[in-house]
Amino acid sequence: MLVLHGSGVGKGIAIGTAFVLHGPSLDIPEYTIPAQEVEPEVKRFRNAVVASRQQLREIAAQIPANAPSESASFIETYLLMLQDPEIAEKPIRTIREQRLNAEHALRMHGAALMRVFEQMEDAYLRSKRTDVEDVINRVQRNLLNIHRERLTDIGKSLDGKVVVTRDLSPADAVLLKRHKMSAFATDLGGPISHTAILARSLNIPAIVGMHGASRYIRNGETVVVDGKRGVVMVAPDSLVLDFYEQRRAYVIGKQLELEKIKESAAVTRDGATITLMANIELPDDIKAAQESHADSVGLYRTEYLFMNRAQPPSEAEQFAAYTRVIKTLRQQVTIRTLDLGADKQVDGGRGEAPTNPALGLRAVRMCLHDPALFKPQLRAILRASAVGPVQMMIPMVSSLDELDQVKSLIEEVKHELDREGHAYDANIPVGGMIEVPAAAVAADLFAQHLDFLSIGTNDLIQYTLAIDRVDDAVNYLYDPLHPAVLRLIKLVIDAANKAGIPVTMCGEMAGDPRYTRLLMGLGLRLFSMDPTTLLEVKRKVMDTNLNAVRLATENILRCHKSQELKELVGKLEFA
Length: 575
Ligand code: PEP
Ligand code: MG
Hints:
This protein has helices at 38-62, 69-82, 85-88, 90-98, 102-118, 123-126, 129-144, 170-176, 194-201, 213-216, 238-259, 286-291, 315-329, 364-369, 371-384, 400-420, 437-441, 443-449, 457-464, 483-499, 516-521, 534-542, 546-558, 562-571, and strands at residues 2-5, 7-10, 13-21, 162-165, 183-186, 206-208, 222-226, 231-234, 275-280, 297-301, 333-336, 390-394, 430-434, 452-455, 503-505, 526-529. The two termini are 42 Å apart. It contains 24 helices and 16 strands. The protein folds into three domains: 2-23 and 149-241, Glucose Oxidase, domain 1, CATH 3.50.30; 35-145, Enzyme I, Chain A, domain 2 (Orthogonal Bundle); 265-545, Phosphoenolpyruvate-binding domains (TIM Barrel). With 575 residues, the protein is of the alpha/beta class. The structure holds phosphoenolpyruvate and magnesium ion (MG).
């Protein structure tokens, strides 16, 4: 039996057969061909293009009728790209004129086409370069006779399998939501990467940062995944299997126990009411939010609507998605404006990345840089605010100037809507995510210009401790209990309280029951989290004596030594 370790991001136990998805690397051979081989080579190239087209059509035919429209539209785009002369014709000319092998000729012209996309002004079109690369790679794989499984090949059933792969982009991970896998494990990735967050929302055992898993585990092998401990056992013997069967039954029993408090209010033993809200990624997550009995939606990550598709969703499509959430839930929905960039690329970020993507043109920066992308979203959110209670939340604000720009765009859009006779909530609350240290340090200033604050601990920790949340090499430094992080959180909560505006936390820390008491002690009353963790947090709230926790938290904030501080947080369990 082989035992592999990583970071557990989705709890529970799964026992099943492995399904290994292989990565995209391709070795392209380059050679010249004799004159008599030229026409057969052209034929080989044409066959590969035809096969690619055929495969894409097969995938399109397998998309279920109720699948989101973007699934079909990205295939349409791929089919169109296959007809582009740079891909379909010019390589043939090169094979004939320069007597190059088909793979080499395709690579030359494909690279030229990708350069055209790279140089485009429009950030969204520029990011389409990776779609071109995907199409070219498909033809290359057909030339090389390599058949790689991809999540976008939706017809492939992963149901009941333990999916093992080297890496998963958030764009790929969101496709996983359509399958009913029993667990998944990746070689790379950190516990608060967006892929890990999506994995958690699947409510299945999941482990990231399992160096070498996709190399050591073979298709069809039996594996046990212990999501809580971050361990995978490959080819376990019967003793291990028996042990984990029993553990799985125990974990399921525990979950059923928690279900009993679904309808209960999140009130502490000494009478303080805590608001527990849900984070959602897609309109399809409404069900999970409803089942968790969350008070409202504290974070709707709209960027997932923009992934795995050729064109950004139109205003009408966004309006339909937002109103579906609002109408079905009949609760307040906090819609976060687009947070694309860094690891969240429209198509998985397989193309060339900027030098420092997390510090680059991300979130509100990308939106302000590209109003053509931003304005339809602002219009859709504002129009949706006429349908039910909506708050708008701006991610990654780092300066007040940025906020001014967003506000003027909102005003501009409101005037447009007035002129066109569209209804909207004129007093729609506009809040900001406090996830850049600058915004946390100056939270008192931001609080004067915003209707609410929401602490995004995933990014706040990444930026404060200078650790890339996607890079598992620095995972070990991820520490929500770092005194600098705790001080910033306290600063933000106090600033919001002083300004008399609500403050929420919507990063992963808010959904981790180990920190519930500490955060309550720091003054937090509004928590937003993945619905799968809500009941555990509620249990913690209901078992808490807030007054005792508050006193103990003061000592924690005075503590300078990391180990001592962690021990004091551990002792909160007994407060
Ligand atoms: C955060 O940064 O804590 C957050 C909630 O936003 P995201 O994880 O989508 O970056
Ligand atoms: Mg964030």
